[in-house]
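Re: that backbone. Tokens:
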């Protein structure tokens, strides 16, 4: 199945919504169940945003959602990053042909990852450390790619880190879901 991908810059949510509405087709094409074209919404489990207002698309497709820490679409398995188990399950059950990754500028998970990257590592329980490790790695990559610099204002760092994270998750989903 060919997929559709949309990257959004700044606060231009309306443009992304219009793009998806134009791509989804007419309501007469709508089907339910696993054979229906589905849109995947990945958002942060720490966000207070609800999925419904973020996806006001004409009901021409199923909308399936998953909320993960820092809207991460993958889980680290040794040196590899694999598709999040919930997303993998949704991919098996639905024909996912579009994805929307929703970041939020008050993401405490990204802030914690940034703080732990620049300061000493406190001892964390293994489960929490495992969930934060990919985010800390993402922060390091953002510095290496000059997306972030220590001279930036904290607000700029936060906004750029959120955008960088969303772009990375979209790129990961594009690769991981391309076989469906």
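Recovered sequence:
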């Amino acid at each position: 199945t060919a997929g559709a991908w949309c990257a959004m810059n700044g606060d231009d949510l309306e443009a992304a919504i219009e793009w998806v509405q134009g791509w989804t087709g007419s309501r007469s094409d709508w089907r339910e169940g696993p054979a229906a074209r589905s849109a995947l919404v990945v958002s942060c489990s720490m966000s207070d945003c609800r999925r419904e207002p973020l996806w006001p698309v004409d009901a021409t497709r199923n909308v399936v959602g998953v909320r993960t820490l820092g809207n991460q679409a993958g889980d680290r398995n040794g040196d590899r990053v694999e598709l999040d188990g919930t997303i993998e399950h949704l991919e098996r059950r639905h024909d996912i042909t579009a994805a929307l990754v929703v970041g939020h500028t008050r993401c405490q998970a990204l802030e914690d990852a940034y703080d732990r990257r620049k300061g000493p590592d406190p001892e964390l329980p293994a489960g929490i450390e495992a969930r934060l490790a990919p985010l800390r790695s993402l922060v390091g990559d953002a510095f290496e790619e000059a997306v972030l610099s220590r001279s930036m204002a904290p607000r700029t760092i936060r906004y750029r880190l959120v955008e960088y994270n969303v772009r990375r998750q979209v790129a990961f989903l594009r690769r991981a879901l391309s076989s469906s």
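The mean pLDDT is 75. Residues 44 and 71 are 4 Å apart (CA to CA).
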